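fold-stage: in
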Amino acid sequence: MATGALLKTAKYSLSTLQCAKATVTKIRTFTTILNEQQQEIRELAKNFADENLKPNASKLDLEGRFPFDQVKRLTDLGLMGVTVDEEYGGRGLDYLSLAVAVEELSRGCASTGMIMCLHNFLYANLVNEKGTPEQKEIFLREFTKGAIGCFALSEPDAGSDVANIKTTATLDGDHWVLNGKKSWLSSAIEGSAVAVFATFDPELRHKGLACFLVPMDAEGLFRGKKEPLMGVRACARAVTACDMTLEEVRIPRSYMLGQQGDGFKIAMEQLDQARIGVAAHAVGIAQAALDTAMNYAKQREAFGKSLTRLASVKDRLTDMSIMIDSARLLTYRAATDVSTKNSSMAKYVASRNAAAVADHCVQILGGRGLSTNYDAERHYRDARGTQIYGGVTDIQKRLIGHFLLKEHDAL
């Protein structure tokens, strides 16, 4: 090839690289995808994460201390009721606004991001969309002002198999009486109310389920043991693995959310939403891992040059970036077009990619990646959990296949 042709090719390649770099920057800020309001929420959450979460995340994790101050400030910013109607103290925004907020907060501190995510997606959204005006006054208004809501679906023998729920609900005059045991409650110790799923007729299986709103200080409600988890320790040691026992808990008949038999549908709809939140949570953790790896690689030298000049490291960083953007785009699609297939795809890809990105991060840092003095190992632990909560990856893959074949058969 002639010298002129080589220079022309090199010039074209440089121009292409510059364009690609500009495109990546644009995609990272998502100015072409998010509207003005969504960008404002993203900037609000991003600034809060950079100033208040990231500097404290490691200490909160090591101490296993619930981030009370951070959650209170999130409440003051209106981020504990992002999609709640304004008349009940919320911001009245859409799921995409909530997803970008969860992502940015999780980038700063996975534990705080998880608390905010579950409160919004599993409790506040639920009461806002399904609750009666009376229920909203009791179980929603204060939950945009600092009270935390919980979600009690899983049981010792009923995780993914929701139809196997054993907690019973018996109608006694104007009251429902609840008996049973729930597992893996999020924010249960600090929570003020909980959405409880129970069966009023076990023989009906999923058709016999109903959802009830229960104050956490109700007589007969007991919060049980806590088991520390490998990740999100600022909330896991305090709340996440908490059991709850209900013994003759009496609540007014009006505290049932929806109608008898609506419980399974309500649970599935909420899990569809929650998976969007978990996916956004995973993307935030993955982004934090990439930032950690990138900053380290730029500063660290090996064989006389920056790690970013080594092909193996550059390849890892490239893979990390691709995995994050693909997960982010699937998450944003799920948030704007909510369906079981879309939310399962987003969670499946985002959680798997987050775990892979975090693994790359540890590898790039080498021995330092295993040290608690660096963020890499925390990101690794936090990322792993995203493949479990909200429905394990195996279940997500099964759901995706089911709806893929269903759509194909409809053609």
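fold-stage: in (second)
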Amino acid sequence: MILTRGARVTGAVLCAVLALIVAGWIVRDINAADDIGQLGRRWAGFYDARFTVLPTTSVSDPVLLVVYAAAAVAALRSSASAGALAAAGAVTIAVRLPGLWNIGEARWDGRFPDELRTRAMICAFVALAAGIALIITAGAGRRPVRDFTERPPARPGTGAGVVVLLGLGAAAVVVAGWEIRQALRGPDLYPDWYLGGDRVFQPLTGPPPGWFSALLVLLCLFAGVSAVSRATHARAFGLIAAALLLLEGILSVIRTVHYELLQHFLDLPVESELLVLTGFFEVFVGAVTLLAAALPGRPAPVPAPGPEPGYGPGYGPGYGPPPGPFGPPPPSQPPPGW
């Protein structure tokens, strides 16, 4: 199945709208920050980052900006972009959904002006509507491949699918393990850790930390199973999951280097050592699975064309012309008395 031209244009426009929303909030934070480096320190998770005005975005926003741009370009250039549009829409819904019950909470009263929170709520509704519209467009705008000149969606190769499953599956287990450890160490943070609240810090337009971790686990598992089953949407979901995982690992390594944890690695507690190793593991797995998911696989099989209408058994080439509306045609040599 491929996308019609109207569906492709609609998907590209929706991705452009989502990209403009994300870019607008990033520009707002850059203008509000005293130093753009401080915004990067906040995105990287440095606990000593200080702000005169709190940022509204998180490190997931630049990733979403790249996802929207890539999905828009794919929709305009290829008719086999249904998976990219569906993946962009699903991730948008998952990331923006917590804003519906968090942006209007009273805890933001002293942090952000009412006008900014109103804009954030409107953007959350628009993003959710656009995400739903992307999924509908990717599903309703498909049509069968009509001939061999049209390029169907590519499926991941068998080897690449196994690599993606093993890599993202292992990463999902590791991230879920740290979430279980977090629950045992700080049970008083729940349910704010997943749903948002006074006991955790989250950006105005972003999800709570536990919500994002749960999203990453589910995305890795779904992308891995889809890749090993060679689904046509596996590459898009795998690329997004690998990119988020790679970014998480890079930021963890940056924090490790910044706080000079490698120089004192052997003096750290066992849990801290495992946390440092997890960052390097995420970088390795994210990079490998990103390359594996990006490899072009075999296109989906194109069904063979069926017989032309009006031809059945005993007719067609070698069998004479098809029957007319009043029965079979008269013979070429009419018998006597015809």
